[in-house]
Amino acid sequence: MDIFSFLHQGLSAIVPFVVLLGILIFVHELGHFLVARWCGVRVEVFSLGFGKKILKYKKGDTTYALSLIPLGGYVKMFGEQPGDNISEEDKKHSFTHKNVWQRIAVVLAGPLMNFFFAILVFFAVALIGEDAKTPVVGDVPAASSAYAAGFRSGDKIVSVNEKAITTWEDVQKSLSLKESHDLHLDVVVQREGTNESVNIATTAKAEPNPNVLSSFEYIANVEGLTPYSTGTTVGVLENSPLHALGLKTGDTITAINGQKVGYWRQLDSTFAKMNSGEPLTIEAIGVREGDKEPKPLTVTMAPLTSIKSFSLQSLGLESSELYLSKVMKDSPAQAAGLRDGDRLVTINNVKLQKWEDVINNIKSFDGKNPVAISVLRAGQMIDLKITPKMTTQMLPTGTEEKRYTIGIAPIANLAAPELMVLRTSNPIDALVRGTEKTWDVSVMTVMSFVRLFQAKISPKNIGGVISIGQAASETFKIGLTQFLQMMAIISVNLFILNLMPVPVLDGGHLVFYIIELVKGAPLSMRKMEVAQQVGLALLMSLMIFALFNDFTRLLGL
Predict the structure, then answer these.
(1) Structurally, what CATH architecture does the domain formed by 145-228 represent?
(2) Could you report the per-residue pLDDT of 235-252, keeping only the tens digit for each?
(3) How many Cα atoms occupy the beta-carbon half-sphere of 80 within 13 Å?
(4) 29, 283, 318, 321: which one is catalytic?
């Protein structure tokens, strides 16, 4: 990478971060500034950033500044320090000499501005339009409760218990429970590819909610009801005619003779419609030598008299999930001789059907006898012995799980749920949507702190400025809506974080003023100074810990 490319990439990551953080800091400090002025407090400095002032402009009593370090901001008010020597004439402009309710209003204004700003941003997103998962059911296994109840793959959920459903989020809300009790469901679905409506009545069993950040302790679960489907990423057997023509394991099929496909369940039925006496053209995307990103490719197979009809089996195709995309460095798998591209066949003589079988078999390691693994490599069966090691895995729920692993990753084959653009042209509806989203994110943020204290999610999830910078950069690359949503989420986090009862934060000052209301007199200077020092030490410790987590994730440790 040349110096210009490096600088370009660096700027493309830094600029969204500075824009996002700058706007949120400005909004927060503007809240303090406006209410302070409204209460008659003289504001001496309004600064974005800390440290040396790069730019400054004075109007009236206030110096407006842009400072060197863009990781915060401040509003300096006249008479902020209780020990300041202030004349009787100037006391009317002093923050300390305002009544306690006015001081509470000034301090509370900053966090509240972040809350209301989040509503404004989500309001704008509702008008612009945001991506949401459609209420379409994914793969429904034939042995599942959902299948027995009448659900089929591709069903579109129209209503649940007479409540209209628009997105998959609506489905999840319909199944959320405060208490543990089974839930009777009357569901109306529309069958895939038809206008046929089907009524399904079933009972969903109450189970602990796997989403630890939800305020709902339980969820009514219908086993097999999910928005996820297996994708069309293929494993290609060595003796397959398609392999000889250039189709490779890890390629994702997008069309068969011009007919688009997106799910594994569509492949066999689509192949069955094709005439084996005619050419077969498969469109796919894949990575070839020298490519950095997947590119479109086309494979055309001449008519084959040896094949009576096309099917996955006759064409030598299978799901890619039992093929290894990566064998981790210095892992038990690498030490035993596993390689990228190997196809897992059996573990301890148990034939593998899906990746879940691999995880479950390795997890059940007894800690004594090595695990026997058979793999297919270049058409040859190879038997290996591997001794798994105990590792700590971060789960999608934010919790950590200790289990045996061997250091391998599959060629994933999961189709992304179908998305829709959720948009409203009615400003009132958009405002309601913005308020609901802000409230939901606020609840989720509060629950994340609660779960941290309960040790139900790992403290490794705490991130600092590097995590915020990465999120800002990635969402900016995706699009405006995603960037705005990230801005609103971080704004809510600032609202909650600043209200925490930690001295040096707004919440700590609010605690002082509430104590003053109860006592009828402010705390002594000495007690407040000690509390501020403790609070600063706690805040600095948290920042160092967050940066440690950021660097750990960045370095892949």
Answers:
(1) Roll (2.30)
(2) 999 888 888 888 999 999
(3) 14
(4) 29
pLDDT value at residue 531: 81
- Give the model confidence (pLDDT) of 392-436 as tens digits: 777 666 677 788 889 999 999 999 888 999 999 899 999 999 999
- Render 145-169 in DSSP notation, one character per residue: HHHHHT--TTPEEEEETTEE--SHH
Burial of 328 (0-12, 13-18, 19+ CB in 10 A): middle
Active site (annotated) includes residue 400: no
Question: Is 0.85 surpassed by the pTM of this model?
Answer: no
- Which residues are within 8 A (CB) of 45 and not within 5 positions of it... i.e. 6 or more apart? 62, 63, 65, 74, 75, 76
Tally of residues, the chain: 557
Angle at 348 between CA 315 and CA 322, to 5 degrees: 30
Helices 427-453 & 480-498 angle (0-180, nearest 10): 50
Which architecture, in CATH terms, is 323-413?
A: Roll (2.30)
Three-state DSSP string of 297-364: EEEEECCCCCCCCCCHHHHCEEEHHHEEEEECCCCHHHHHCCCCCCEEEEECCEECCCHHHHHHHHHC
Query: Alpha-carbon distance 174 to 161, whole Å?
Result: 8
Q: Would you place residue 12 in the very low, low, confident or very high pLDDT band (cuts 50, 70, 90)?
A: low
Widest distance between CA atoms in the chain: 104
Q: Tell which residue, 148, 19, 111, has the closest CA to residue 492.
A: 111
Name residue, tokens 């004075």.
Answer: 58
Return the CATH number of the domain spanning residue range 236-315.
Answer: 2.30.42.10
d(CA 43, CA 352): 69
Flag whether pLDDT at 324 surpasses 80: yes
Residues of the chain with CATH 2.30.42.10: 236-315, 323-413
Is 442 in contact with 119 (CB distance < 8 Å)? no
**Do 248 and 237 touch, CB atoms closer than 8 A?**
no
Q: Is the pLDDT of residue 6 over 70?
A: no
pLDDT beyond 60 at 369: yes
Which residues make beta-bridge pairs with 389?
405
Which letter does DSSP use for residue 225 in this model? -
